[in-house]
User: Fold these one by one.
Assistant:
Number 1:
Amino acid sequence: MPEASSNYIIAIFTVISAIATVVIAWGIGYSRKQLKLNQEIAQLEFEYRLSKEYRELIKLIPAKALFGEQLSPDEYQKVLPELLHYFDLSNEQILLHERNKIGPEVWQNWSEGIRDNLSLPVFKQSWEENSKCSDNFKELRNFLSPPV
């Protein structure tokens, strides 16, 4: 009887050990999924904050400039700080793309927006003036330069 009893105890411990292994494996898998989900949420929040910064900035630029119309010299001087802020934000977005900190869909959207905005007369004028007197915004310069 003692041998049967010890075999029975060994069998119980074997089953408990197998169950514990399955539970641990499930817990590890679940934890990995949660970690990945948390990383995706953090990425989305990060991209959202940058998009929100863009929306807040673009509100400060007169609508007619966004529709491709020229501004009066006075209007242009008033909006110049926002345009420089826009160049800085665009430069940062490009840098984040180069460092793989933003997703490909977001980059596609941002890169098209940068090109579209910089084709508008007011943005283009400010960018050309800035380029003549400053070496700032290296990433944006490289982005806008045609490939050689």
Number 2:
Amino acid sequence: MGEMPFYREFQGLDPKVKRLVTIVIVVSLWIPFVIHFVFKVPLGDKDINNPIVIALWVLVGLGIPLFIINGGMETLVTTTGIKVRQYWIFGTTIKYDKIKRVTKTEIKFKDVGGYGYRYSRKLGRCFVLHEGEALTFELEGHKKVTISTENRDRLLEAIKMFLPEKVFREGEEKARRVKFV
């Protein structure tokens, strides 16, 4: 059983956008499928009755809409660290004892090349679901991790509740080293 989160934030696409994208994908993929296989109307001059083509068509026609509908990004603040998970695939845990500095950041898609799991020289590894508010964590070894958030101040307050407590247990030298900007 996993650790109980102190703070949880889930970011997902707007439900209207999800519906629109899903409808467009389903219609664009499934109408030709139905026309060809149900009504036996050929699509072009090539035969597409190959089982591999049919399997890929079904996987893409179901997979992409399900991915869009269920996708999102989850940020958890626990007693041991900050856990980020994006679209079930990409994720990381930032341990409190590795954090040297936390900085409020503004993310622009042009800076990171879109949304999703990205890398930027300026911001390090980025977990981005929307433009705007973010937190950048500078870690030991000059590594950075940036997380977009819908409520930066609440996320920062949740982190501050755990980090100073851990820092003070490990000594005053460590307490001076951690900076909140």
